[in-house]
Amino acid sequence: MPNADSVLTVAKVGKKFGSKTVLEDITLEVQPGETFGLLGPSGSGKTTLVKLLSGIDQATSGQVHVFGKLMPQLSLMKQIGYMAQSDALYTELSALENLQFFAAIYGLKGTKRRQRITEVMDIVGLSEHLHKRVAQYSGGMKRRLSLAISLLHEPPLLILDEPTVGIDPLLRQSIWTELKSLNSRGTTIVMTTHVMDEAEKCNRLGMIRDGRLLAVDTPEALIQSASKNSLEEAFIYYGGGQS
Ligand SMILES: Nc1ncnc2c1ncn2[C@@H]1O[C@H](COP(=O)(O)OP(=O)(O)OP(=O)(O)O)[C@@H](O)[C@H]1O
């Protein structure tokens, strides 16, 4: 049974693609209001894991529960904001039309819809580009629009796959300010990242290598238990040869 206090409970989860094992024996809990980071080398399984957490894909073995419900679960869609690594946007439409489309899926209507669209575009610094076609957006702008869409319906759980890749440092800082503010108001955040200063902002981190969760702890405790001086060194220790 999932822990009633947890937002997310992952129990002995495995994932195979054909005969290839990509995740093995992952057990993890995320508590309400946490910012939880998944850190690991390229190809270690982070994206695969967050897809299982958001219900986009299904585990081969074990169970994922979100808000006490077994995933995947369509009824939880309104409670999860998911930002994928590759942008799922309609490039022939304007940003506004994209936002209106996703708002409709989440059941946002009328004034509330207009208000949320204004708010999320402000958060990601794209207010001036609301009417531009997404085909004319840069890569970073598309990432920001994807983030805005994941925030539209004010979900209590945000699952973000490398949310700030391709976003300049200044805007990244303002997005983090917003994420921390959402977090302080109770939003639980799970994200994958390669960026060390972002990982340090997480309350806890899970270190993944070759589809296995090697360690889960606060950034400080991970640095200490690897007997290193920085998170970067600890990451190399957990992600590489452990020497
Ligand atoms: N649909 C799929 N079919 C077969 N193999 C897959 C599939 N999706 C992912 N994989 C494999 O699973 C492994 C883990 O991939 P995943 O994208 O989860 O890693 P990641 O840690 O997110 O990497 P990155 O940091 O580069 O995004 C890789 O070896 C990848 O090739």
TrEMBL record:
Keyword ATP-binding appears in the UniProt entry: yes
Coiled coil region boundaries: none
InterPro entries per UniProt: AAA+_ATPase (IPR003593), ABC_transporter-like_ATP-bd (IPR003439), ABC_transporter-like_CS (IPR017871), P-loop_NTPase (IPR027417)
UniProt keyword list: ATP-binding, Nucleotide-binding
SUPFAM superfamilies, per database record: P-loop containing nucleoside triphosphate hydrolases
Gene Ontology terms, MF aspect: ATP binding
Domain ABC transporter, chain residue ranges per copy: 8-235
Pfam annotation, one family: ABC_tran
Source species, domain of life: Bacteria
Protein's name according to its UniProt entry: ABC transporter ATP-binding protein
Organism: Paenibacillus segetis
